[in-house]
Amino acid sequence: MPFSSLGLSDPLLSAIADAGYSTPSPIQSQAIPAVLKGSDVLAAAQTGTGKTAGFTLPILHRLSQKNYSKNRPVRALILTPTRELAAQIGESVNKYGVHLHPRLKSEVVFGGVKINPQISRLKSGIDILIATPGRLLDLVNQRAVKLDQVETLILDEADRMLDMGFIRDIRKIISFLPKKRQNLLFSATFSSDIRKLTTGLLVNPIKIEVAARNTAAELVDQVAYLVDKTSKTQLLCHLIKKYDWQQVLVFTTTKHGANRLTEKLNKVDINAAAIHGNKSQGARTKALAGFKTGNLRVLVATDVAARGIDINLLPHVVNFELPRAPEDYVHRIGRTGRAGEEGEAISLVSHDEYKTLRMIEKLIGKEIQREQIEGFETAKIAPPVPPKQPRKPRPRRNTNQAKSNQPRKNTKSTHR
After folding, report:
1. Do residues 43 and 54 lie in contact, with contact meaning Cβ atoms separated by under 8 Å?
2. What is the structure's pLDDT at 313?
3. Which of 288 and 263 is assigned the larger pLDDT?
4. Which domain holds residue 133?
5. pLDDT on residue 400
6. Is 404 contained in some domain?
7. Radius of gyration of the chain (CA)
8. pTM above 0.85, yes or no
9. Confidence of residue 160 (pLDDT cuts 50, 70, 90)
């Protein structure tokens, strides 16, 4: 099925061709016609499946078919959890809208940078606003933007926004929108929290699910190296140098851990940078740009900061530490094995993480291959789960005998 069969306008088809695409992905072939019809959509798809184009293309089509208002009120609002993802969506909107005439105006707003330049750019009016929830509320409270004419609301990476505690901000933002509108919700999984959020938000939504719930990418080769915690950094350096990895995304669980690992990698001449919430937006943008172009060999990231990283043909993802939540493992390894290409996901697993590893395997429904590297063998191998032993019945206690065996109370004698 070519893109031309989906009902998109010629300017959009030209932009798609310019980008080098000819056939829509499964999420695009299902989502684009549904959005064009004006239906609410509830879509679950793994990262890297092309879902961003799945909603930006039909939104651009619908907005371009209507007359432009002189003051350009916000007609499409896209909420995302992170700065990186917001910037990525902004790039997608600009790329696919390049041949529209007149051009639709869009703006990306997020925290971590000065708000006044964003306020200035919003004054002239925009058609599409891509925003993180916190910064959008700041702009609304300062009366820099109105949301009373929004025609379509898109919640992208909705599961991550809930994980990051944005539920109150989202509900507050929804209260500023017109009641009659189109709603699109995209998520990696259909969790119970996501289903709860859709209640009262989506009206008779078209449900789209292009991958089984919480399954890891099929094209990703997964392996777990069993190693002592104190040897993880040395093993990572060994793997990078031995196999000449040139582009590696490494996950840590904490910001401080990301900084420490980055310093150690640079000390052994492995060019690395860290991105996390404590880094300035300029530093994060510079690191991500260097990683995409190949000037930076290793990008060390926390789960939240890595959300929105979109890199074609990323070959290697390393879990330096297993995530606290098994579901985050699926998100992490979804950064590789994208667009039909194979990828490799490697986990460095210490003895205290064996329980987490088994939880991840239970979630994804498959056993992850265990290996050890000579010279980095762990002293402790994961013990098998011991079978439950039948409980032995306790012997009945003779209450009379028990009472007779009890020491007599020490009573005060009346004899002198």
Report:
1. yes
2. 67
3. 263
4. 3-209
5. 46
6. no
7. 27
8. no
9. confident
